[in-house]
Amino acid sequence: MAIKKSELYSSLWAGCDELRDGMDASQYKDYVLSLLFIKYVSDKYAGEPYAPIAIPEGADFKAMVALKGRADIGDQINKKIIAPLAAANNQLNQADFPDFNDGAKLGDGKEKVDRLTKLIAIFENPALDFGKNRAEDDDILGDAYEYLMRHFATESGKSKGQFYTPAEVSRVIAQVIGIRQAITGPDTTVYDPTCGSGSLLLKVGDEAATKVSLYGQEKDQATSGLARLNMILHDNPTAQIEQGNTLTTPKFKEHGLIKHFDYVVANPPFSDKAWSTGLSPHNDPHERFSFGVPPAKQGDYAYLLHIIRSLKSTGTGACILPHGVLFRGNAEADIRKALVRRGYIKGIIGLPPNLFYGTGIPACIIVLDKKDAAARKGIFMIDANQGFIKDGAKNRLRAQDIHKIVDTFTRALEIPGYSRSVSFDEIEQKNDYNLNLPRYIDSQKAEDRQDIEAHLKGGIPEADVAALTPYWQVCPGLKASLFKLNRPGYLDLAVEKATIKSTIFDHPEFTAFIGTMAQHFADWRGDTAAKLKALRPGLHPKEVIGWLSEGLLAHYSGRSLIDKYDVYQHLMNYWTEAMQDDCYAIAADGWKATPQRLTEADKKGKLKDKGWTCDLVPKRYLVERYFAAEQAAIDTLIADLGATSAALAELEEEQGGEDGAFADLEKITAKAVKDRVKEIRGDKEAVEEGIALKQWLLLSDKKSDLKKKLKEAETVLDAAAYAKYPKLSEDEVKALVVDDKWLARIDADLHSEMDRISQNLTRRIHELAERYETPMPDLIARVTALETKVEGHLHAMGFEW
Questions:
Q1: Among 43, 45, 24, 250, which residue's Cα sits nearest to residue 128?
Q2: Four-point Cα dihedral 60, 62, 64, 70, nearest 10
Q3: 1-156 CATH fold
Q4: How does 75-94 read in b/e, with b if 16+ C-beta sit within 10 Å?
Q5: Which of 46, 87, 385, 549 fits a disulfide with 55 by CB distance 3.0 to 4.6 angstroms?
Q6: Is 651 helix (H, G, I), strand (E, B) or coil?
Q7: How many whole angstroms separate alpha carbon 437 and alpha carbon 350?
Q8: What angle do CA 158, 164, 167 make, to 5 degrees?
Q9: For residue 487, how many C-alpha atoms fall within 13 Å in the half-sphere facing its CB?
Q10: What is the DSSP letter of 444?
């Protein structure tokens, strides 16, 4: 049975993190990812005669496993594994790997041996078998690497997390530059001049319809080595990664000048204060600063100008930069003006703050396009600063945020408060080439204004009710049911505040709307169920979620009151939570629901049976479909047991006082109660006490009997359910998984979205009603009456106010 991807990644991280033992994550990652690399190339290429990566005999992961426990394990890994591997492949250097014999980082003696031995053992997990996997075919490697890199970046801290561009931002860039729609091939070139570990470069390459040629340069030696390994891990062994300072020593040149590329992307260091060290920008041999020289202590435009110079005349690029590049003055203002006039800036996408690991400041994506520069009439702007979710100490773009940004940009959709196309005339004449997004897009939520007349005279402002027009368009009669005229421009509630919710929920127009939406989902569900049940072993889960999510998004486009991106996010959340693992299980094993026994070792190492589980078809779905009557009987027993327990507790509370039946009992137990009953038998003064005690015994016996029956019934049902799994046909498994598990959950999530819509309306109306419920004169009259009352009390007590 295939291991769940989520469990594999979390256990991999947990094991690695446990062994780190104080080492900085920015260093420890090099050891972990190097081992992941050696495991991958060993599984995939060992023994292959024409493999793109040569694996010398005795220099694979099996040879590394054989070194476990040896006193010289670190030295042997360096000499017998890494050195031969690097020597056999031109695209690798031994410097790309960390020193596995470094006592300062790994400890000395037994500490180093134990640490490396345990680290190797983590990668011996049978589920980490890359022999039949390819990165583009939904293998576990790409996601496992992404998972580890994200966690290492989080743990590395502010100053050392810049080797990794958040995957969500990389996806946005990869899609807005248009490589997916372009005709590509091996001659198509993609370049990242500050590639870090290569995550952004790879995302762009993955977005292309065919394999393209990847080029990257990285200043930090260890990180550039990591990028080279990353390229091979993601099935791009021919990618060219060079080490060096891109600005002072660009490595990719043609005829002595900078090489030109089809696509250039980058996430350079923000506001690099040392960008010009070793460089003479006024005499740059590569002619990168013809639009102007950036300030000596502000290197953002230096990287942007390098990107522009590196683009072909038909090239497209994108660069992540701090918001300051949009509005800072002096030399940067002159460069910005020149770039706008030339038409190179196609778009600007403002991102939420605190997305990146190296800084918490908000950033933007500058999208460049040389091909249509001459004909460009303006710049398309998006301010997406409000679209994110908190994820620990950082913010993160959700799937719906990414999709909305990409849809809006690629279709040039103008959305109030979010995006618009801004003409060059407006940029030049009204704003003097200042591109600060708030000048063009007001993305802030409008303040909830207080109506002074309504506070003075009462009544709900009709303007506030009119702001709820989307609801009245769907349910035009609902407004008349909720409001009545007070005076021109002001309304009163036509119902009691306590009945606002029921008035909305029970209104025939709202009921009809809910019914329409339920049918709308049912239409999608019917078509989708057949497609999902047609999935076969070997499926590609990423393709499944691709057509599934896009189909759902399209199905809900243009629907009133409901945001299609909210619907999309519900599906993506459930995909991450469970559906993805299910699809990988089906890809590996087919439609097989096989329960697994759960065991736990005791202190002596003896395994104890702890029940069973089935990830693809959990027990509750099987029971609901095939053992509903048995479950109903159990539910009845549970309800009876709860009622009996409550009656016992109530009786004990009633009779627990000083004069109660249990007052003389040190502890209320069956034996103590029975003994007390015998003790007071025949005592006429203890008749009521005896009745209470006997009632307690009856309830206690009933409780014990119910517990016994419940345990027996649950045992019988558990055995019957376990025995049912092997008898399930493939069609029955499909029905359980697709109908009862997947689509039922999505249905419930979307139903909750409808509840949220109605609750928002209820909450807003209730808020308006309370705000203007008591006019100012009434408040003054109340205060006056209370003052008079207080004065009267004071006077009666002999005090003067």
A1: 43
A2: -150
A3: Ferritin (1.20.1260)
A4: ebbbebbbebbbeebebbee
A5: 46
A6: helix
A7: 7
A8: 120
A9: 5
A10: S
- For 320-349, the pLDDT digits (tens) are 999 999 999 999 999 999 999 999 999 999
Chain segment 127-174, per-residue pLDDT in tens: 777 775 443 344 456 667 677 777 777 766 544 445 678 889 999 999
Query: How far is the CA of 670 from the CAs of 533, 662, 676, 697, in angstroms?
Result: 56, 12, 10, 7
Instruction: Say which amino acid occupies 508.
Output: P
- Calculate the CA 453 to chain-centre distance: 46
Q: What is the rounded (10 degree) CA torsion for 138, 142, 144, 149? A: -150
Task: Find the farthest-apart pair of alpha carbons in the chain and give their distance in angstroms, rounded.
Answer: 117
The pLDDT, as a whole number, for residue 226 is 84
Phi, psi values for residue 369, rounded to 5°: -150, 110
Q: Please give the residue that has the higher pLDDT: either 21 or 178.
A: 178
Structure tokens at 402: 């990414």
Instruction: Work out the pLDDT band at 618, boundaries 50, 70, 90.
Output: very high
d(CA 655, CA 84): 83
Distance CA 135, CA 660 (A): 74
Q: How far apart are CA 356 and CA 399, in angstroms?
A: 17
Q: In Å, how far from its chain's centre is CA 460?
A: 40
Distance CA 460, CA 771 (A): 8
- pLDDT score, position 389: 93
The predicted model scores a pTM of 0.86
Indicate the domain borders of the chain: 1-156, 180-442, 618-727
Mean pLDDT of 6-10: 70
CB-based contact 315:349 (threshold 8 Å): no
- Compute and round to an integer the Cα radius of gyration of the chain: 35
* Fold of the CATH domain 180-442: Rossmann fold (3.40.50)
| Fold match between domain 1-156 and domain 180-442 | no
Tens of pLDDT, residues 519-547: 999 999 999 999 999 999 989 998 999 99
The more confident residue out of 354 and 188 is 188
Neighbours of 120 (CB within 10 A): 21
Output phi, psi for 261, to 5 deg: -125, 160
Q: What does each C-alpha distance from 308 to 172, 315, 455 come to in angstroms?
A: 20, 9, 58
Given this model, what pLDDT does residue 18 score? 63
User: Which tokens is 134 given?
Assistant: 């390819």
Helices vs strands, H then E, count in the chain? 31, 18
Distance of CA 786 to the CA centre of its chain: 55
Reading the block at residue 79, the tokens are 């000499």
With a CB cutoff of 8 Å and minimum separation 6, the contacts of 672 are 665, 666
- Separation of alpha carbons 279 and 248, rounded Å: 5
Name residue, tokens 């530059």.
Answer: 177
Rounded Cα distance between 158 and 357, Å, is 6
User: CA 53 to CA 749: how far, in whole Å?
Assistant: 47
CA distance to 23, 194, 450, 704, per residue, from 464 (Å): 58, 51, 10, 60
- The full DSSP string for 86-148 is HHT-TT--GGGS--TT-HHHH-STHHHHHHHHHHHHHTT-TT---TT--GGGT-HHHHHHHHH
**Lowest pLDDT segment from 64-68, 237-241, 553-557, 790-794:** 790-794
